[in-house]
């Protein structure tokens, strides 16, 4: 495996020392004993001129995960360079291997360790961060989840402040709308304090803390409320579409034995979005020169039921089975939980896949790939 260290940049413009910076640019002490003190706020330059986006390095935290890998591939397709953080899991897909060591680099990093976060940002001369960190779908403990979201978020934001990064894009979720009776959901919708799931609770908290921190530290921080996702590299098999597609690709019955009575309600809905659309939306928002808003929905903009999903699976694979579907809707489930995409359209985002084309593409992928 090639070295994960990114190539050094031109030495024509040396990094400034702390004393050479104007008073307003000099580093402030880290907020709290756990934050390492960095001796200079760094602004990266190449050949005497500010680096362009083609020269810059983007750190994708959680880059070995489902969304992270697809997002890394999207940035590479757009001509950018990425550093993908690795913690407990590493799975480099074949389509990415040829880029490792040239335009893509893998960095060992625990986001809850401030020294590791700062070292990765410094060593790879990071220009901006896409933060997609999240605990496992099947959580180990509430305490571990809290630690990841709070300590990890603080370390990311403090690294951005200390090194003067251009932008931090935070992976939030449409789960923050959980508890609202009906959509479509706009980013300025008032959210309920109570949260039905771990994801809805932590993502709401993350957004509030991050935006307050950004206002105090004068950071460019944007939250991306990502839809319910399916597609390549999804390995947890938690959502129903993934199980239906895997089963169809293998000509078997999807397993829902972990659900009540082994069934799922056919009228339950979600804003199901093909992951490549999400990756494109993340890339468009993150690289936009200016953003008029601090929160963006990145999803399909439509509500899809479990019945709709299975119909699309059966269209792609005639004869596909799903006896786990039962009539009706889960009590308390939202009606029309679609997201409003007006803000995202302002930066050029529009999903390219319909439910049918997304599911067909996913099943085609699964026929030659394990996940």
Short description:
This protein is an alpha/beta fold. It contains ten helices and 15 strands.
Describe the structure.
This protein is α/β, with parallel strands linked by helices. The chain has a domain at 34-228 and 275-301 and 338-353: Rossmann fold (3-Layer(aba) Sandwich). 32% of the residues lie in helices and 15% in strands. It has ten helices and 15 strands. It has helices at residues 66-77, 94-97, 114-123, 142-163, 198-217, 240-250, 275-287, 306-316, 342-345, 355-366, and strands at 45-46, 49-50, 57-61, 81-86, 104-108, 126-131, 168-173, 221-226, 228-230, 264-265, 269-270, 272-274, 295-298, 304-305, 325-326. A seven-stranded parallel sheet has the order 5-4-3-6-7-8-13, with helices on both faces. Strand 7, helix 5 (198-217) and strand 8 form a beta-alpha-beta unit. Helix 1 (66-77) packs across helix 7 (275-287). The two termini are 23 Å apart. The model is unreliable at 1-34 and 37-54 (pLDDT under 50).
Q: What percent of residues are in strands?
A: 15-25%
- What about the largest sheet? 7 strands, parallel
Report the total helices. Answer: 10
User: How far apart lie the N and C ends?
Assistant: 23 Å
Going by CATH, what is the homologous superfamily of the domain at 34-228 and 275-301 and 338-353? Answer: NAD(P)-binding Rossmann-like Domain
Q: Return the CATH class of the domain at 34-228 and 275-301 and 338-353.
A: Alpha Beta
Rounded to the nearest angstrom, the radius of gyration is: 21 Å
Poorly predicted regions are 1-34, 37-54
Strand neighbour order, sheet with most strands: 5-4-3-6-7-8-13
What's the total number of strands?
Answer: 15
Please estimate the helix content. Answer: 25-40%
